[in-house]
Automatic annotation (TrEMBL):
Its main location: membrane. It is a multi-pass membrane protein. Keywords: Membrane, Transmembrane, Transmembrane helix. This is Membrane protein. Residues 154-175 are annotated as: Disordered. One of its GO terms (biological process) is polysaccharide biosynthetic process. It comes from the Bacteria. The chain crosses the membrane at residues 21-39, 45-64, 85-108, 114-133. Residues 20-140 form the GtrA/DPMS transmembrane domain. Belongs to the GtrA family. It is found in: Membrane. One of its GO terms (cellular component) is plasma membrane.
Length: 175
């Protein structure tokens, strides 16, 4: 494949990955904001605690979406390691997300419903940039090319072989 063709293929694949990440992430944002506002309206919890609960629910939702939709074609061995790394990077994203909300609420005194949702959403955006990079780099890693070929070959070896072909004898031209 030519260099421009290879680059184009990589860009198309990256575009698909970003789109799938966006679908799961977008639904995760909705889950996060819905739970955040539900907890805020039904409990007396402080804003950042309510936000952390909402973020934790969204993290669980997102893991399922990323593993079984966005990155379903990625390496699946070592599920414990994968989940541990996912939780680690998700917690860092949670700190980024809720750090923005904390700074706006307690540092700047902007704690009204509109301001809290704006800064919650802004924090989610910053956390998402970090999560996208870390998940694709460390958690849901692409199979190396050699392993991908071996996986495909092992799959082909497991299928039943086709029945043997009957050889066709060539008849002599003069009979």
């Amino acid at each position: 494949m030519s260099e421009p063709g290879a680059l184009r293929t990589r860009l198309v694949l990256l575009g698909r990955e970003v789109a799938k990440f966006g679908v799961v992430g977008g639904l995760g944002v909705l889950v996060n904001l819905l739970v955040f506002n539900l907890v805020r309206q039904t409990t007396e919890l402080p804003m950042v605690r309510a936000s952390m609960i909402a973020t934790a629910v969204a993290i669980a939702f997102n893991y399922l979406g990323f593993r079984y939709f966005t990155y379903r074609d990625r390496e699946q061995s070592g599920r414990t390691k994968e989940m541990s790394l996912f939780l680690l990077f998700s917690l860092v994203g949670m700190v980024i997300e809720n750090g923005v909300l904390y700074a706006a609420t307690y540092g700047l005194g902007w704690d009204g419903p509109l301001a809290s949702n704006f800064f919650k959403f802004f924090g989610i955006g910053l956390g998402t940039l970090f999560r996208f990079w870390s998940y694709r780099t460390w958690v849901f890693r692409a199979l190396p090319a050699k392993e991908a070929v071996q996986t495909a070959e092992s799959f082909l070896e497991r299928t039943e072989p086709a029945p043997p072909r009957q050889s066709r004898r060539r008849q002599p031209d003069h009979v």
